Every structure is written in structure tokens, then in C-alpha cells.
Amino acid sequence: MNVERVTIQFLPGVVLQREVDYFNGINHFLVLDLDGTISDPLTGITHSLNYALHMFGYPEMDENTVAQYIGPPLDIIMRKITNSDSSELISHIIRHYRDYYNRIGYAENTLYPGIYEGLQYLMAKNIPMGICTSKRVDFAEKILKLFQLDPFFSFISGGDIGIQKTNQLRLLVENKIIDKTAIMIGDRAVDIQAAHENGLKSIGVLWGYGNKEELGEVSPYRILNHPEELKKII
Description:
Elements: E1 2-11, E2 14-22, E3 30-32, E4 39-40, H1 42-55, H2 63-67, H3 74-82, H4 87-103, E5 110-111, H5 115-124, E6 129-132, H6 137-146, E7 156-157, H7 165-174, E8 183-186, H8 189-197, E9 201-205, H9 212-218, E10 222-224
Parallel strand pairs: 3-6, 3-8, 6-7, 8-9, 9-10
Antiparallel strand pairs: 1-2, 4-5
Helix pairs in contact: 1-4, 3-4, 7-8
């Protein structure tokens, strides 16, 4: 296996350097979502969200309600929750949300049972993997390091306000970090749709926040029921 050092710039001002492994000369990557696919962010997101909403006079939300919003970019979530189109208000709420999340919320993630073993198995089989998440890169890195998962991944593509996952995948393809043989793995329809729009195969997972009906409507290549099934996709 050849290893090439590349510099990846996904967002303005964010440059992330990673080793990218080329599998048998072609980068057949598995590209994984983070929230709802690798770790469960519900408690941390709920606490961070309620901290921010309280600062602006909005009522707090319980975990069952918050769970419906996990997956899409943060600015889209905030617009739905506040029913506001004010970019200034949304920006202020997100800033307070991220303040709490950076200090406390990220560490309230829990790792899905079987994920570590599944990723470890894939790495042992020399399958290169990367992360494509709507989270900011720095938050994603903190979560991966929290669970000692960072050695499994060759890159992180992080999102931000106004950044869509379909554009993140497009940049990965255009920068030759992945090619059209890559497979996107995620728990929400947005993950599968982003893969389709970039000509990639996709795999939906049912241990996160999407359900079989949601995923079925966007026709992933496969649907997995448990993290242990990650071992069967190669």
C-alpha cells in the first residue's frame, strides 16, 4: 500500500493534513458520516441546543424532539427550530451552541456498540476510510480522539453554515481524495442523496436517526441493521 501525504482544504481558513492511503493503487474509500453513524450525539446536542435557545428566550426541547433534527447542517436545523429566516439571529444562536458544545457537549457523545470493532476489522483488511460530516472539522476531530478512532481515518471533511454534504463529497472527488468507487455510509437520507448526486454508491444504517422508510425512499445500495454488519460490506 502506498501512502501519500496530502493537504485538504474543505472550508475557508480550515486546512487539514492527513495521510491518504491508496488501496491497490486506487482509493476505494469508505466515507462515513459521524453523528448517528459512528457515535450518538443526542445528549450533547440537546444540552448545547437548550443552552443556546435559552439565551434567546426560546423554550427548551426534550431529547425525543431534538432527535428529529439530527443529521442536516446546523443552520438548517436552527431555522426549522426557531422558524426564523434571520441570518443574524441564526448566527448568534449557533455561536452560543458551539460555545457549549466545544466545552462540554462533544464529550457527551456515546459510541455505538460494535462500531470500534467494525472499524478495527476494516482497517485490518486495509480498507481506507474517511469522515464526511456536517460538523465542523475541529469538533469531529475531538470526538474521534475522544473514542480513539482517529487512527482509523485518513481524512475528515467537515461542514459549516451554508455547506451541504453533496458539496463536501464533490470536493473530495474533485481533489482526488476519493474517486467514483467510494461508498458513502450514513444514517440519514441526506447522506444517501449526497452520494447519488456525486455518482457514488451508498449504504444506509439503521442504528442512528434515520429509519427504514426514510432510507428506503432514497434507495441506498444496501441497508445495515447493526454495526457488526460493517464487517460484511467488503
